[in-house]
Amino acid sequence: MATVNVHEAKTNFSRILSRVESGEEIIIAKAGTPVAQIGPIRQKVKNRSPGSAKGRIVMKDSFFDPLPAEMIREFEK
Hints:
Layout: E1 2-5, H1 6-11, H2 13-21, E2 26-30, E3 33-38, H3 69-76
Parallel strand pairs: 1-2
Antiparallel strand pairs: 2-3
């Protein structure tokens, strides 16, 4: 976690935001005393529910057919 003073934060705000976008947290200090912290917004992950794609995915019967010998050789390289 990096610390920058208020003047540096005002002067380089776009650069600081770029660092925050990449996941870094920045502390802003006034006269050496930390006053604020800037960090990335963490998106809440939605809970997955089993079967939510039921009926939307179709597997053709040919999916289970053996692969052509040529393709198997490529995998074995």
